[in-house]
Amino acid sequence: MATAASVAPPGALAYHRRVTVATTGLATDLRFRAHAPPGAHPERPERLVAIEQVLEASGLAARATRVPVRLGRKEELLRVHHVAYLDSLERALAAPDGGWLDPDTYFSPGSWEAALLAAGASVDLAEAVLDRRLDNGLALVRPPGHHAGPDHAMGFCLLNNIAVAAAALSARGARVAVCDFDVHHGNGTQDIFYADPRVLFASTHQFPYYPGTGALEERGAGSGLGATVNVPLPAGAGDDALLAAWSQVMRPALERFRPDIILASAGFDAHRADPLAEMQVSEAGFAAVTRGLLEASDGRLVLLLEGGYDLRSLSASVAAVMKVLLGDAVPPPPAAPLGELERQTLERAGRSLAALPVPAP
Predict the structure, then answer these.
(1) CATH number at residue 63
(2) According to the model, what pLDDT value does residue 360 have?
(3) Is residue 130 part of a domain?
(4) Is residue 274 part of a domain?
(5) Residue 100 lies in a domain
(6) Cis peptide bond N-terminal to 332, omega within 30
(7) Domain housing 64
(8) What's this model's pTM, rounded to 2 decimal places?
(9) pLDDT tens for residues 2-18?
(10) Distance CA 234, CA 203 (A)
């Protein structure tokens, strides 16, 4: 049984105890590759091929427990998506030659099955971790989900996988935190839970940037006020800013909320090599965030793949976080001083959090 490192560098996430990891679940399936674009597109099957090749070659995949993948059920999807949207989406995706739902979001003959499998795999892996049948888990699913709203697809996303999983756990009475470190704000997830005090949504992302949401002032509504926490980071922000955001703002938000489990929208497009954004995060930065989330969740953590479009940095980043889940030591990124804009943003976010009520279930 492996033991994760317990000491963080200055400015990074702080840990109060050592985390021992026994079993990491891994959910993936060849059928996710059937969701394929009609031409060149950043969200492509090769993303999973590259990740799986690295995990196999490194021996990391062999150390994980494979979780069978099954289709999401309509009653699970209906907790977060409108019935009219699901019916229209299923009809649209039945087109034999594929097509486009918007200028960014394609579908192919295998997309509907892949989307249902992604949702079902996310639910099963999350429930296995909640029930302590697994200690933590990684779902390598496609298509991604965090931009999909209750009644629309967008941003490469068809069904909101992480929202479906969070709603399934919430329906069982669990207190769920959804943490999103994709470079793009998870607007669909935020919309779904914006007035729900039972699910915390916490996001770091490049701002202003696609999809244009995720401002500091977006903090939830009604009884869900305080259950949405956004830390918008400027272009050029790197490991130091990302880790400061998670240690200074997100960690206190999680401690206030006291979730039973954390689900993470694990997008790796904040990497400095990614072609779709302008942040400067490294593999070590993603690994350090994952270590912090493991600590904050008492080990109950499930990562769901979202973005990341440079194949080399994507696969290396996934391997780094997989090592953390398995309990391996991953060297932290070197500490660096925060930029003035980043420091001001974090100070404002901290003051905003302190002024918010703690959502009651």
Answers:
(1) 3.40.800.20
(2) 78
(3) yes
(4) yes
(5) yes
(6) no
(7) 2-355
(8) 0.93
(9) 333 322 332 333 333 33
(10) 14
